[in-house]
């Protein structure tokens, strides 16, 4: 079974979903494969001002029952393209930082510390330190055509699901079942679905052990 987590590095809702992602990885280690993919937000999807960002942060923070409020300091200008930290996160993974560490460091720097991670030098410095990577190599990789192509491809795959909200979780099992969750951050519906899919997959395996493959005719 495989779970794919579609995210945007600067998304507040993805930040709130990270404890759920970490708990799922711990709970189902060795039973489920976990992967994350970038799903870039469009410039018009971001707040248009610090005041608007704060309004959204108060809403999401109260829904998430957070003891802290997020920091809008990462905000640049209305309509800005915030692809840079996502490209750096993808580049860090391609260079061997395959855990969540580098991308989480970028998210934390943005929404908790208010750092300007859409500036390439800032994003590279953060991710390189977190992932123990060479900054010059990371910068070159983040600005390469193949990393941009990879991020564009994963964003296109997200849109092909015909959903709009991040975080999104796509659950696929060995018997062809698929479940898609868009915008949910709580573990309960995800865990319940994983348990159901694992149980069905195990039941198929038991049936096959007793009866083999279906007859050809």
Q: What's the short story on this structure?
A:
With 217 residues, the protein is an alpha+beta fold. It is built from eight helices and four strands, in the order βαβααααααββα.
Can you describe this structure?
By secondary structure, this protein is of the alpha+beta class. It has a single domain (2-211), classed as Glutaredoxin (3-Layer(aba) Sandwich), CATH 3.40.30.10. The protein is built from eight helices and four strands, in the order E-H-E-H-H-H-H-H-H-E-E-H. A hairpin with a 5-residue loop joins strand 3 and strand 4 (178-182). Helix 3 crosses helix 7 (145-160) and helix 5 (120-131) packs across helix 6 (135-142). The longest helix is centred in the C-terminal third of the chain and has 25 residues, at 187-211. The two termini are 30 Å apart.
Secondary structure elements and pairings:
Blueprint: E1 2-7, H1 12-27, E2 33-38, H2 50-63, H3 83-94, H4 101-112, H5 120-131, H6 135-142, H7 145-160, E3 168-172, E4 178-182, H8 187-211
Parallel strand pairs: 1-2
Antiparallel strand pairs: 1-3, 3-4
Helix pairs in contact: 3-5, 3-6, 3-7, 4-5, 5-6
Keywords:
Glutaredoxin; 53% helix; alpha+beta
* Order of SSEs: EHEHHHHHHEEH
CATH class: Alpha Beta
- Poorly predicted parts: none
Assign the structural class, choosing from mainly alpha, mainly beta, alpha/beta, alpha+beta, or little secondary structure.
Answer: alpha+beta
Distance separating the two termini: 30 Å
Strand content: 5-15%
Number of domains: 1
Largest sheet: 4 strands, mixed
- General shape: globular
CATH topology: Glutaredoxin
Instruction: Give the rounded overall mean pLDDT.
Output: 97
Beta strand count: 4
What Rg is obtained from the alpha carbons, in whole angstroms? Answer: 19 Å
Share of helix among residues? 40-55%
Please state the second-level CATH architecture. Answer: 3-Layer(aba) Sandwich
Question: Which homologous superfamily in CATH is the superfamily?
Answer: Glutaredoxin
By DSSP (H or I, 4+ residues per run), the number of helices equals: 8
| Spatial strand sequence of the major β-sheet | 2-1-3-4
């Amino acid at each position: 079974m495989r779970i794919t987590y579609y995210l945007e590095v600067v998304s507040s809702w993805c930040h709130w979903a990270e404890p759920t992602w970490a708990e799922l990885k711990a709970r189902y280690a060795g039973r489920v494969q976990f992967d994350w993919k970038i799903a870039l937000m469009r410039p018009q999807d971001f707040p248009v001002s610090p005041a608007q960002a704060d309004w959204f942060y108060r809403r999401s923070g109260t829904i998430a029952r957070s003891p802290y409020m997020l920091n809008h300091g990462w905000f640049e200008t209305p309509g800005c393209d915030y692809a840079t930290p996502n490209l750096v996160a993808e580049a860090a993974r391609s260079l061997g930082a395959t855990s969540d560490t580098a991308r989480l460091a970028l998210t934390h720097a943005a929404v908790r510390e208010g750092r300007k991670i859409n500036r390439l030098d800032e994003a590279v410095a953060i991710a390189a330190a977190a992932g123990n990577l060479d900054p010059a190599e990371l910068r070159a990789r983040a600005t390469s055509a193949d990393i941009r192509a990879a991020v564009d491809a994963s964003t296109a795959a997200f849109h092909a699901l015909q959903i709009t909200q991040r975080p999104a979780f796509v659950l696929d099992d060995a018997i062809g079942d698929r479940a898609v969750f868009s915008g949910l951050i709580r573990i309960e519906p995800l865990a319940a679905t994983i348990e159901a899919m694992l149980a069905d997959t195990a039941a198929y395996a038991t049936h096959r052990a007793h009866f083999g493959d279906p007859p050809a005719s």
